[in-house]
Amino acid sequence: MARLVLQGTLLCMLRIGLGTLDSEGFLPPAPHNCPYKCVCAADLLSCAGLGLQDVPVALPAAAADLDLSHNALQRLHPGWLAPLARLRALRLNHNELEVLGRGVFTNASSLRLLDLSSNALRALGRNDLDGLGALEMLFLFNNRLAHLDEHAFRGLDTLSRLYLGCNELTSFSFHHLHGLEVTHLRTLDLSSNRLGHIPVPDLAALPAFLKNGLYLHNNPLPCDCRLYHLLQRWRQRGLSAVSDFTREYMCLAFKVPASRVRFFEHSRVFENCSAALAGGIERPEEQLHVQVGQSLKLHCNTSAPAGRIAWVSPQHELLVAPGSRNGSIAVLADGTLAISNVQLWHEGVFVCLATGPHLHHNQTHEYNVSVHFLHPEPEAFNTGFTTLLGCAVGLGLVLLYLFAPPCPGCRRCYHRTCRCRRWPRTPSPLQDLSAQSSVLSTTPPNAPSHKASVHKHVVFLEPGRRGLNGRVQLAIAEDFDLYNPMGLRLKVGSESTSSTGSEGLVMT
Hints:
Layout: H1 2-18, E1 39-41, E2 44-46, E3 65-67, E4 89-91, E5 113-115, E6 123-124, E7 137-139, E8 147-148, E9 161-163, E10 187-189, H2 200-204, H3 208-211, E11 214-215, E12 221-222, H4 225-236, H5 240-243, E13 250-252, E14 260-262, H6 275-278, E15 286-291, E16 296-298, E17 308-312, E18 318-319, E19 330-331, E20 337-339, E21 348-355, E22 363-372, H7 383-403, H8 429-435, H9 437-440, E23 457-462, E24 473-477
Parallel strand pairs: 2-3, 3-4, 4-5, 5-7, 6-8, 7-9, 9-10, 10-11, 12-13, 15-22
Antiparallel strand pairs: 1-2, 13-14, 16-20, 17-18, 17-21, 19-20, 21-22, 23-24
């Protein structure tokens, strides 16, 4: 053990003597081409929070994620991303960028995420975003954007999330979405701007998946009846962009900032709106019901011939010819969507997107497909029916005891067979009453009794309770006509006035 300690001490002294450790500690030497004070780790390059006024000149080619946030960058030079062929994410948020310019992103063909939030951008030109053909997420919130070129987002064919909130936009064209390709777009954030006019027909024509991700809250919207009915319908449908921010939807009642009211909390502003105005604003989705295993064909009905037809599945898969990746959905040459063997995962909203010279590029047709099993599942065990059956059986047993009792002599037979005497076919009610008056009388046997009434008789035999040794308890009913036994009314007596003195049953 001492020998090992000695060897370790000598090794440390040798390394110190050779000067292999730097004066700042045990940090390894910086990787090749890593900018000063930046952090390089594998394919990550972070130069955040260093107060940089310009982009570092030497950037490692292996960087796939570049973070230049929280600096003082004021301008980006064309071609500055040429060395970063593998770049996937670029973070430029919290800087002082005022303009972008042509050619800034020409070498970013593989970029998926671009964060330009919290800068000082005032406008987006036609060519500011050229070269971002693979971009999926673009963050532009918290800038000073007041103008967007008509084709500012042209070429962003795969963009799915665009955040333009907290800017100074006074208008936005939903007719062409400033060059956006609507087939992939799922989130469009326009909240907290200055939008004072929104074309309702263009909003209603948007596909369902984009309506669910269109955020318009915290804008001075007009208190328009058609817009109110449209947003109210989106809220009733449960679209999250409206239902999650219900209180933040405002409108100007008198076109002055002080007249802001909440869309969904001050309905008196819209009480004069005619319900007829709401009709025809939004084309309802077509409801289809299909059974598992059946075939289904969906036609893209448009107002004019379409040059190109694409579909979006409930799983947000873009469907063009020949069809889905798993082969279960086919897109025919005429644009028809065909499913030969419908399964449960085909349930949901299918959206048809049609383009053409005489069509709006975002003209859509929606089908809400509900899938059911061919044979319904068996119903659960019905306890109510069995309860009713049990009550009927119990009532039948009571009637059996009343009208078909066992003979009194059978209890003495025990182990031998006994033949019971049958009742006479036309019994005399008075004879039966006199024969049983000693049992049914409410007075002691030795006490003088009144004449038995022909309107008093036993109508129900209640099973004996605890303490009665299994004897049968009798209940007396008034106004029972002995000469009309079919009019018997069953009543449950709470307590009987007497009980049989023997173990046998005496029946009427």
